[in-house]
Predict the 3D structure of the following.
Amino acid sequence: SCKGCKTECPSSVDVAKMKAEFLQHYYDEHGAGFRAKLIANFTDSQKLGSLVAPLYNFVVKNNFLSTLVKKTVGFSPKRSLPTVHGTTLSQWVKKQRATATAKRKVYLFADEFTEYNDTEIGIKAVKLLTALGYEVIIPKHVQSGRTYLSKGFVKEAKKIANQNVDYLKDLITADTPLLGIEPSAIITFRDEYLSLVDRSLQHDAQRIAKHALMIDEFLLQEIESGHIHREQFTAAERKIKLHGHCYQKAFHLVTVTEQVLSFPANYSVEVIPSGCCGMAGSFGYESEHYDLSMKVAELVLLPTVRKTDTHTLIAAAGTSCRHQIKDGAARVAHHPVEILYEALLK
């Protein structure tokens, strides 16, 4: 599911898409297993968990209880489970006052991972954009459908794609783009949605795809247009090592992130020459795949992180990538928007 094949294969064969199609046909014939359904419905479980966040987090952090959960589900006992935030990103944004002097309006896609698990990153993304002079609005939408696609529930993903395109078709333009925090979620608009939506929504899906951007992409466009200035950021020195998410690599976006992180005058960025972090969504959690997941991570990523001094920041846009770095190297990896927010002169 890492999609590296989409650009690395000389024939550009999208194995992840083929896998999803095969699994849907398999489910139609034989039914889907409990774990596949649980992972596909990840958003629902996290939504419920956020309502009782202290209790949910206690369970997933407690060694005995979390091991019991992992064994029941079929996850590796060696893998930590994601926690939830007590407040969702959408709830936090609703409480914020509108910016009267905003120079431009942007829409933020509150993906299922940032909405419930990485809410603090979403909050910093909103604060960053607001401080740079943009009005941030979370439009009506549903989850991206990424978890359904990763486990082959194509029919469910199609319903979600239709819903999102219908919700966003009259909002997203070149002037009011849709910005994303989690690469796999926002890039779904540029990839799978184009072949998932009903024919009547094809034109709208194609138009949205052109303006569905990673926050990094939007910031680079604004920097190049002269709307964001170096003087807005610190002049302090900082070294960063960047690991690119597989979807960023598949769509040639790692260089974009590198350029944006290098924008503060004395920030230097080195891209870690790694392949997939080994997680590929739920793959790295599954007990039968854990060892292979770690072997992939140990090729380049984890040894590089371990050798990196503690004064150098580790950057990774993907939630799974950050999870792998935390589990495998005991280091905190930061989303690029966190690093840029901290670099702002406030």
Observations:
- The chain has 21 helices and eight strands.
